[in-house]
Every structure is written in structure tokens, then in C-alpha cells.
């Protein structure tokens, strides 16, 4: 089983590496977008799949990081080496602040994160003198490091791919660490973890901040990919879409969120090319996922592959 | 000073509208444990249907009634065939109802187009009236305040003073015990869900007459309703009243004094309140 996985991973990597050589501009752009949204969905899934928290304000960290980087680049002319880390720090600091939400659980956590998400949306939308309001911030220059500009899409594709792979490895270490294990323990039974002496709220707080940092990284990658940013990036719709991506692809896995992003963005691109009511189609995807595939594609395949995986979990 | 009072009245009239929407949301959560993010779409649909009825019949009152009634079967079908299948999984409910809202929003866009539409109000409500102290204020929004008070008082009487209200309150506390005493809890669910849809539809028509209706309006109003129930506490009717007043006033003064930061003025106090009382003003621990 393990060897199959290695072969599968290497095949996927090889496919990802040759995309720019065989595919046109359209596909490369779409796949870059899938990597970035996949990373954002991965940040959702750290909370959703491991800690059992349903955060619906991930777009806030994403947008704050993106806006910080864009404003520093465009308005103040800072180089990428300042603007990009500053965006990452700004988004993460917001997560440090918003982490107070982990005082609540269940439906209250969901509603509070929705409301917290709207603060950022309202700020970037209404604070027009600073954020550009509805128009957002345009003409973000391509990232440049030490005088070398990453202007070509092919170079940026490889850059994003590299960052995503590094993140995936870091994420793998994180969720296999004792910390990741205790998060899953809290998801299973918080009161039991408390009685074992774990400070569960602090664990969830740490997970929330790490998740915010991953979302911020996705935001910085996004702003250099898109070259402009507007309030849509901070919207509630983005937050729900990425949670759906995490669920469709398979919650609790590393590749799942990326697969989900691929399915979701691919479908939307395809449908919107010929059908005007594509929002309704995406709505139906939401409904269908909740009703028929609550554990996503990966869970569906796992079930289809047989009972082997299932019985292994049993003691 | 003068415009300060004007903003207070603005805030209260917006609160009246928010109460219509939030009371249904909070009651359906209290009784059925359902988070229905499609509630904003009910508002929009009710508003659009009311608009069409008003245009054809020329009667605003018929529009309000029709807009409210038309949403009831929609809400019932969604409750009965979709939301009921999510059990108590709130994330599934949120995703499902967001999906429903996307579909409804797109259908509304297809039928009524993307322009801002205003529900026509009757001539008697169009002018302005002079309040004591020489304040000139639009009649319509003043009547809206009265309407909100009437609905609020009737709901409160229904909830606190009648047998149906007592059963609903008991259901909010403990569903299992209520059904164990032989009361048909499902029938109660249908009743409360119909009431919630009806109020949301009515809110759409009366709100559409001064806020106008447009694609996306469902989300804007929904988030206000969410803040109302977070302030007041999920499942509490009194909380929805107080919450609506707080949110209406904060919003009016925020827009007036700090237009660029009006969302902070609204959400900042909410975040602080949550730090100390995560379940809102009237929410209970448990």
C-alpha cells in the first residue's frame, strides 16, 4: 500500500512539473489558482478536519495578507521582500486577535466567525480612501527578489508549486506531531482531553493561529498571481467555498483540499463558459455535497476501495 | 442635536425591519436547532414577489401579505426535504442553506434582473410628517416603526401568554420532554417555520420599499440579522428585540459619525460582548 502511495505521489509531482510544458496559458493559470485555493482550503481543514472547528472567516486572513502586500507594493513602493512577509505577518496577527473566537464552540463559533469575517469585508469595502473600496487595488507589480522579477507565468507557476509542496510537508509534520494528535483528541472528545490535563482551548487557539498563517500565505501568493485585489477576496462566499473544497476533496487529508479546489474551480470555469446561471449550479453542488457526499470524493473512493481501510481503524 | 435625534429614529426604524427577520431566525434556531442561512433569500424572494403583486394590484397591503404568504411553502419545502436531512450538524446546515441561497439568488436574478428595484408605497405613506420638536421625518419609516412595535408585541404575547407559545418555549428548553408529553412536536416545527418564513417575506416587502431590492441584498440583510441574534442570544425572542435595537442604533450612528468604519462600530462591540458573554445578552449557558 505504501509503495503505491509513493508511486502515486511521484506521478502527481511529475504531472505538476510538466504542466507548463504541455498545457497552454489557460490551464496553467487555472492550475496555479487551484494550488492557491487548495492552500486556503488546507488552512480551513486544519481546523475542520483535525480540530473539529468550523471556521468561516478564513477569507479574512487571506484578504488582509493580500491587501497589506498590495498596499505596501503599490502605494508605498516597498520591495517584495518587505511587502510579502509584511502581508504574512498582518494576516497572522489578525488570526492572533480573532483567535478569541475559540472561547466558543459549535454553532456559536460558526456564527461568530461569520460575523468576524464581515468586519474585514466591511473594512476593505467601506474604508475606500485606504483600500480602494469596490475597485480594490490594481497594478500590483510581479514579485521581484534581488532585482530579478518573476514576471513570467511559468516561473510563478513553479514558485507557487514549490511553496505549496513545502507547506504540504510542513503540514504533514504538524498533523503527525503530538500537537496534531491532541487536536484530533479534542475533536473526538474535548471533555476527555480536559480531564487528561490538556489545556484544550490553548491547543485550539494555536491551531487557529497556524491556520490563519497558512491562509495568509495563500493570500500573499494570490495577490501576486492575480495582480489586483478587491473586496470579493474577503467575502463570506470565499470562506464557504473553501470549506466546501475541503469537504469535497476529503476532510482530514492533505491532498483532499487541493483535489476539492480542483473540482470546484474546474467545474465553475467549465459551467460558466456556457451557462449563465453558474452561481445556481455551484449552489446545487453545495446541496449535493451535503446530502450525498458529506465525506467527500476521497471518502467515497475509500469506501469504494473496500472494507480494508475501515476494519483497520477498529481496535 | 437635531440630526442626532433623526439618526436615532433612523436606527429604530431599521431595528423594526431587522426584528422581523431576526425573530424568525432566532425562533427556528431555538426550537429546531437549525441555522438557516437561506433566511436572507426568503427576505429577497418575499420582497420581489410583494413588488410584483403591488405592481399588478396597486395595493401595498396585498403586496406585503402576498410576499409573506408566498415564502411559506418555499420555506416548508426546504425545511421538510433538505434541512431536515442534516440532523444537528450545523456546518452541514450552513453549507446546505448557503447553497440554497445561491440557487434562490440566481433564480431571482433571472426573473427580476440585476437592477435596484423599489417596492412602490401607497401615496398616504410617501410624504413626510412633522414630529414634536419640528423634526421632519418620512412617514413610511415612521409607520414602519409602528408596524415593528405591533408585530413585536403580538409575537411577544403569542410567545409568553398563549398555550401555543408555552409549548414553543417548552420545546426550546427540551424537545424530547415536550414530545414525551404527547405533543406533536413536528406540527409545532411546521408552525414556527411557517411563521419565520412569513415574517422574512414580509420584511422583504417592507424593507424593499426603502432599502430597495437587488442581487446581494439577501446577504447584506442576513449578516445584520445574524449580528442581532448574536447580540441578543440565539433562541431568545426578547434578545432579538433588544439586539435589533442595539444593531439598528449602532448602524445609524456608525454610518453618520464614522462612515468609513461603520462596520467596526457594529462588529467591534459585538466582539467585545462575545468575549464576556459568548452566548449573547439573553442566551443561556448550557
The beta-strand count of chain B equals: 2
Rg calculated over all Cα atoms of chain A? 20 Å
- How many DSSP E strands of chain A? 2
Mean pLDDT of chain B: 88
Low-pLDDT ranges of chain A: 307-315
What does this entry look like structurally?
The complex is a heterodimer of chains A (about 325) and B (about 290). Chain A is about 75% helix and about 0% strand. Chain A starts with a helix and ends with a helix. Chain A is built from 15 helices and two strands. In chain A, a hairpin with a 2-residue loop joins β1 and β2. Chain A has a domain of about 220 residues. By secondary structure, chain A is mainly alpha-helical. Chain B is mainly α and about 290 residues long. Chain B has a single domain, classed as Orthogonal Bundle (ABC transporter involved in vitamin B12 uptake, BtuC), CATH 1.10.3470. In chain B, a hairpin with a 3-residue loop joins β1 and β2. In chain B, α2 runs parallel beside α4, α5 crosses α6 and α9 packs across α10. The longest helix of chain B is centred in the first third of the chain and has 31 residues. Chain B is globular and about 60 Å long. In chain B, about 50% of the residues are buried. The chains are: A mainly alpha (about 325), B mainly alpha (about 290). Chains A and B meet through α5, α11 and α13 of A and α4, α9 and α11 of B.
Amino acid at each position: 500500500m505504501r509503495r503505491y502511495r509513493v508511486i502515486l505521489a511521484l506521478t502527481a509531482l511529475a504531472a505538476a512539473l510538466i504542466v507548463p510544458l504541455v498545457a497552454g496559458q489557460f490551464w496553467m493559470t487555472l492550475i496555479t489558482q487551484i494550488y492557491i485555493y487548495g492552500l486556503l482550503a488546507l488552512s480551513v481543514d486544519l481546523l475542520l478536519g483535525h480540530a473539529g472547528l468550523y471556521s468561516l472567516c478564513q477569507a479574512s486572513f487571506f484578504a488582509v495578507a493580500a491587501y497589506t502586500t498590495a498596499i505596501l507594493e503599490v502605494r508605498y513602493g516597498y520591495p517584495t521582500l518587505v511587502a510579502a512577509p509584511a502581508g504574512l505577518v498582518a494576516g497572522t496577527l489578525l488570526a492572533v486577535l480573532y483567535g478569541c473566537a475559540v472561547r466558543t464552540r459549535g454553532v456559536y463559533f460558526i456564527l461568530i466567525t461569520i460575523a468576524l469575517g464581515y468586519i474585514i469585508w466591511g473594512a476593505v469595502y467601506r474604508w475606500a480612501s485606504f483600500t480602494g473600496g469596490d475597485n480594490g487595488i490594481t497594478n500590483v507589480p510581479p514579485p521581484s527578489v534581488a532585482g530579478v522579477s518573476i514576471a513570467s507565468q511559468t516561473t510563478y507557476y513553479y514558485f507557487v508549486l514549490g511553496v505549496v509542496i513545502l507547506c504540504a510537508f510542513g503540514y504533514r509534520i504538524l498533523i503527525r506531531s503530538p500537537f496534531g494528535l491532541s487536536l484530533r483528541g479534542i475533536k473526538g472528545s474535548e471533555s476527555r482531553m480536559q480531564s487528561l490535563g490538556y489545556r484544550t482551548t490553548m491547543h485550539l487557539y494555536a491551531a487557529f493561529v497556524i491556520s490563519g498563517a497558512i491562509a495568509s500565505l495563500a493570500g500573499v501568493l494570490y495577490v501576486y498571481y492575480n495582480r489586483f485585489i478587491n473586496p470579493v477576496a474577503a467575502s463570506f462566499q470565499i470562506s464557504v467555498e473553501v470549506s466546501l473544497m475541503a469537504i469535497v476533496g476529503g476532510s482530514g487529508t492533505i491532498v483532499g483540499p487541493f483535489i476539492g479546489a480542483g473540482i470546484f474551480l474546474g467545474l465553475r470555469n467549465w459551467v460558466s463558459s456556457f451557462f449563465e446561471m453558474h452561481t445556481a449550479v455551484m449552489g446545487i453542488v453545495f446541496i449535493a455535497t451535503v446530502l450525498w457526499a458529506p465525506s467527500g470524493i476521497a471518502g467515497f473512493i475509500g469506501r469504494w476501495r473496500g472494507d480494508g481501510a475501515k476494519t483497520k481503524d477498529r481496535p | 442635536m437635531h440630526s442626532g435625534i433623526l439618526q436615532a429614529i433612523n436606527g429604530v426604524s431599521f431595528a423594526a425591519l431587522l426584528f422581523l427577520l431576526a425573530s424568525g431566525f432566532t425562533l427556528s434556531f431555538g426550537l429546531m436547532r437549525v441555522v438557516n442561512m437561506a433566511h436572507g433569500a426568503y427576505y429577497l424572494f418575499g420582497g420581489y414577489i410583494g413588488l410584483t403583486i403591488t405592481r399588478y394590484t396597486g395595493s401595498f397591503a396585498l403586496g406585503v401579505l402576498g410576499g409573506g404568504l408566498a415564502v411559506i411553502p418555499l420555506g416548508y419545502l426546504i425545511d421538510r426535504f433538505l434541512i431536515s436531512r442534516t440532523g444537528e450538524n450545523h456546518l452541514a446546515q450552513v453549507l446546505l442553506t448557503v447553497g440554497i441561497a445561491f440557487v434562490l439568488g440566481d433564480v431571482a436574478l433571472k426573473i427580476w434582473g440585476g437592477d435596484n428595484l423599489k417596492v412602490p408605497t401607497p401615496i398616504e405613506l410617501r410624504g413626510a410628517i412633522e414630529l414634536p420638536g419640528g423634526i421632519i421625518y418620512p412617514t413610511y419609516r415612521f409607520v414602519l416603526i409602528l408596524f415593528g412595535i405591533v408585530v413585536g408585541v403580538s409575537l411577544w404575547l403569542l410567545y409568553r401568554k398563549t398555550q401555543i407559545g408555552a409549548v414553543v418555549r417548552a420545546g426550546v428548553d427540551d424537545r424530547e420532554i415536550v414530545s414525551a408529553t404527547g405533543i406533536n412536536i413536528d406540527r409545532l416545527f411546521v408552525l414556527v417555520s411557517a411563521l419565520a418564513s412569513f415574517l422574512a417575506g414580509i420584511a422583504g416587502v417592507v424593507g424593499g420599499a426603502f432599502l430597495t431590492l437587488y442581487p446581494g441584498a439577501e446577504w447584506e440583510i442576513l449578516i445584520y440579522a445574524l449580528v442581532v441574534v448574536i447580540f441578543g442570544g440565539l433562541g431568545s425572542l426578547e434578545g432579538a428585540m433588544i439586539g435589533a435595537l442595539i444593531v439598528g442604533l449602532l448602524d445609524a450612528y456608525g454610518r453618520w459619525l464614522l462612515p468609513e468604519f461603520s462596520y467596526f462600530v457594529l462588529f467591534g462591540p459585538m466582539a467585545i460582548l462575545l468575549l464576556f458573554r459568548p452566548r449573547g445578552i439573553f442566551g443561556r449557558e448550557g
